[in-house]
Design a protein that fits this description.
Layout (H helix, E strand, L loop, with lengths): L16 H8 L8 E4 L6 H9 L3 E4 L13 E4 L2 E3 L14 H7 L3
Amino acid sequence: MTGAAVALCIDVWNTHDIKLARKLYSSLKPNDVLIGDRGFCAYADMFTIKKLDCDAVFRKHQSRTTTMQKGKTVGNCDKLVTWYKPRSCPKGLSKDEFDLYLKP
C-alpha cells in the first residue's frame, strides 16, 4: 500500500471536486477504500462505491440531519446507519446520472 496517485482528472477551475471524483470511480478496484471530506457524503456516491465492491469513509455533511438514537454504535462518536435511496434526483446530479448511479 502506498499514498501514490493512481489516476488524474483535470477540468475547468470551477468544477466541484465531487464531479471530478465521480469520473475517477472507474479507477477503483475491489476492496479499495475511498477517503473524502463531507462533500462526498451523498447517497449516490456511497451506492456507486459499494457497487464497485469498495468502501468509503466520509464525514457526514453538515446539512444532513440524523438522529443519534438510530444505528449501531461502533466506537466513540462513530455510528453505522442505513441510508435509503432519495425519492427525487438530488441537486448536483442530472436525471441521467441519477438513473445511472442508482441502478440495482
